[in-house]
Each structure stands twice: as C-alpha cells, then as structure tokens.
Specification:
This protein is mainly α. It is built from 4 helices and no strands.
C-alpha cells in the first residue's frame, strides 16, 4: 500500500506534519540527555550482571514520554552492538 500525502485530506496532512515536527523537536532537544541516560544504564552492566537486562527494561518503563524512552532504548542497543 502506498502512503502518499497528496492523497490525504488537507487536515490530515497538516496533522501528520505537525506530529512529525513535534517528534523532530523532541528528538533534537533530548538527544544529548538520551545518550547520557543510555550511558548510565549501560554503565551498570558489569555491576548488575545477569539481572542487568531486566533492570534496564524496568528503568526504560519509568521514562516518559514513550518517544524519549525509545531514544534511550535505541542508544543502549547501539552501545551493546559496539561492545
């Protein structure tokens, strides 16, 4: 299925563009903070050993808004892949 904004009514296109703008602003203003939070979580890995993944999931559940939690989750995953 094709997703073409031109096929959407003007109000729906405007709403989609507003949401896209909101998400970009959130990403831009929280990028450094999310990297710092991910580094903190990743830094606990050696200390928490086998319970680390469960602990990280619980910490991520406490973060809000969900888009910010996803930013932190992505950065933790990036750190794990680089290890």
């Amino acid at each position: 299925m094709s997703f073409n904004l031109a096929d959407k009514p003007l109000a729906e296109r405007a709403a989609l563009e507003d949401e896209k703008s909101r998400l970009f602003d959130l990403w831009q203003s929280n990028l450094g903070k999310s990297k710092g939070e991910a580094a903190r979580l990743f830094g606990e890995r050696a200390k928490r050993k086998g319970k680390w993944a469960e602990w990280v999931r619980s910490e991520l559940d406490l973060l809000s808004p969900p888009e910010y939690a996803n930013m932190v989750r992505s950065e933790v995953n990036r750190l794990m892949a680089a290890k």
